[in-house]
Amino acid sequence: MLLVFVEDVQDELSQQALTFAQRLNGEVRTVTITGTYAPAAWARSIVQAIAESGPSAVLAPGTDRGNEVLAHVAAELDQPLAANCVAAALGEPATVTRVRWGGSLLEEARMHGSPVLLTVAPHAIAADPAAAGAEVEVLQTQPDGSPAVAERIAAASAGVSLADADVVVSGGRGVGSAEGFAVIEELAELLDAAVGCSRAVTSAGWRPHSDQVGQTGTKISPEIYIACGISGATQHMAGCKGAKKLLAINPDGEASIFQSADYGVIGDLHEVVPAISAEVRKVRGA
Amino acid sequence: MNILVCVKRVPLTGGKIVLTDDERAISTKHLGFTVSPHEECGAEEAVRIVEHHGGSSTVLTLGPPEAEEQLRDMMAIGVDRAIHLVTDGGEWDPQATASAIVDAIRAEADSYDLILFGNESADAGNYQVAIRVAHALGLPCVTGVKGISVEGRSVRLEQELPSGRDIYVVPLPAVVTVKEGLNLPRYPSVPGRLRAKRKPLEASTPARPEPRLEMLKLVVPPGSGKQVEVLGHGAEAAPAVVAVLGELGLI
Fold this sequence. Notes:
The complex is a heterodimer of chains A (286) and B (251).
Chain A: E1 2-5, H1 12-24, E2 28-32, H2 39-53, E3 57-61, H3 64-77, E4 81-89, E5 94-100, E6 105-111, E7 116-120, E8 137-138, E9 151-154, E10 167-171, H4 182-190, E11 194-197, H5 199-203, E12 224-228, H6 234-240, E13 245-250, E14 263-266, H7 269-285
Parallel strand pairs in A: 1-2, 1-3, 2-8, 3-7, 4-7, 10-11, 10-12, 12-13, 13-14
Antiparallel strand pairs in A: 4-5, 5-6
Helix pairs in contact in A: 2-3, 4-7
Chain B: E1 2-7, E2 9-11, E3 33-35, H1 37-53, E4 56-63, H2 68-76, E5 81-86, H3 94-106, E6 114-118, H4 129-137, E7 141-151, E8 154-161, E9 164-171, E10 174-178, H5 190-198, E11 201-204, E12 213-219, E13 229-233, H6 238-247
Parallel strand pairs in B: 1-4, 1-6, 4-5, 5-11, 6-10, 7-10
Antiparallel strand pairs in B: 2-3, 7-8, 8-9
Helix pairs in contact in B: 2-5, 3-4
């Protein structure tokens, strides 16, 4: 029997984790916890459920909360935890394949412990449509003085959110300065797109971190990603591999970003991007 | 405020990851090294908190002898002293890492008010060392923080969510993991680098227990297999780009 902790069974990543578990073993007990988020207290409830039903493995989605709650479970039980797995085989010992470097590298590992604790990397598999209808048991938690969310502040909505945008236009080191982003912003506005950037740009202070696309920034999944003056370091590609199409504009035809691109323009973004904006206006005006 | 920040030496990967012949590490022959991005913000935050509230900051790493470079880098931006848990460069799993860090913290004469980690390391991304350390020390732990304000003997912490922010208020001492975006780390100055050379660094060599999450090998995932369609060179490519955008219904 496997125990799966889901945040919300209506959520796609929770459904993926549930589907992953069902493929490992047909007998799955699905649990969730509601109310104020308190990771250590929630983990204690899961430890209790583990003691009751003796699962061979415990799974959760590889989200911030899934990883956090299962890490508390692992610490409490002093058992190993494999975060963000894309594959697993429950044997003695269990073996897993897990994500490193935000997906740029995979690790094959053996786990020495019981129960096997793992989280499922987002989008490692597609969710079974039936997962949304799974029976979910709500575990009770007791406030135990461990950290809990004290207050939630809603975001002020402003413009197109980077994570949800259908089109993203990003600039990298090649933009050269904060002012240089004017051409990127102009094209983004014409295309109703969000503006993004690479880590080099936020480290230089040209753009706020909230604009960063990357392993330590925002993960995006637009219909098309237009990357201007970005070389294609693994740190950046980890944030944009969800893009359906990638158009790269770079003066260096050998830049590694072209290996992941669908379309490429070889040239200086300061010439190419304004020319695209002008062409968009011309075509629309016609 | 007595603050500890834990960092990890990681290679500065470029566009393509190449593995060593035994497939157990990244070939770093042509690569530089850095600390994981989240942790760099942790070190900057430790320095800022000490600047505002007084006290002392310490940076700790578990890593090969060469990781002294990262400890000196963090001292160059203002961290006061360093602890180096020296390894032979082999893989330490999260439980072994946490246990060595806990031993090092317990061996210190003074206790820490705040213990900072990155939310996850850039390379292994195990998401758990800080939580294991907090459990072992019986301290509260909040992860993924992008805002820290010390208010007397407690700390107010902000997590960013797609829908807003979650606020935690926890008593000190506490363990906190941070994410990049918490602050903009300063570049080390030349005088900072010179001072860092003279700052105290204590090294010890912990024994590595048997791994319980045992890395067998690394695999470079297959590439996208995409063949780029070059639309042109320079400004002359604009009509071809707009044709592509048109096909996607954007014009």
